Amino acid sequence: MVKELFPIAPGPAEDARRSLPLYRDIAWDRERNAPRWQDGEPVFAEGLEAVLTWAVNAVGTARYRWEQFSPDYGCSLAALTGQPYGEDTKLAEAERYVREALMVSPYITGVRVSGTAFSGGRFSMDLKLETIYGEVSFDV
Q1: What is the pLDDT of residues 25-46, one digit of tens each?
Q2: Which CATH number fits domain 12-139: 3.40.50.1010, 3.30.70.330, 3.40.50.150, 3.10.450.40?
Q3: N or C: which end of the chain has fewer CB within 10 A?
């Protein structure tokens, strides 16, 4: 019989790590915005780097625009263009769209947003992803 009121149990990230296969994806060169190649073959990334690649591409892909992607993949940020919303509303909606795009992945357990801004018609946002492999930051 357990004598503790709250016995120690694995958390959601530990359960997910046990049940999900190691995530693999094509490695991505973010400066060139293109996949990495070596000797004519694609380079693969695993774990945290692969999840980051997926996240960057998911946020950068317009949702519902491309037939080859499921309706769950991509981000709806383009829907804010030309809308008569105030800046606060646009920032809140942009944050929501990015969270929705990223939380589709079972490898991502949380998204923290900071530094959102519209400047000269450009949108920027700093993100910290909590994944089953650890945390990683990137900007949109």
Answers
A1: 999 888 888 999 999 999 999 9
A2: 3.10.450.40
A3: N
Angstrom distance (rounded) from CA 131 to CA 40: 31
Q: List C-alpha distances in Å: 34 to 38, 56, 57.
A: 13, 12, 10
Counting other chains too, the contacts that 105-112 makes at CB distance below 8 Å and 24 or more residues apart are: 105/51, 105/54, 105/55, 105/58, 106/16, 106/20, 107/16, 107/20, 107/23, 107/51, 107/54, 107/131, 107/132, 107/133, 108/51, 108/55, 109/12, 109/13, 109/16
What is the per-residue pLDDT across 74-104, written as a single tens digit (0 to 9) for each? 888 888 877 788 888 888 888 999 999 999 9
Q: Half-sphere exposure of 38 toward its Cβ, with a 13 Å CA cutoff? A: 7
**Angle at alpha carbon of residue 32, lines to 29 and 107, rounded to 5°:** 35
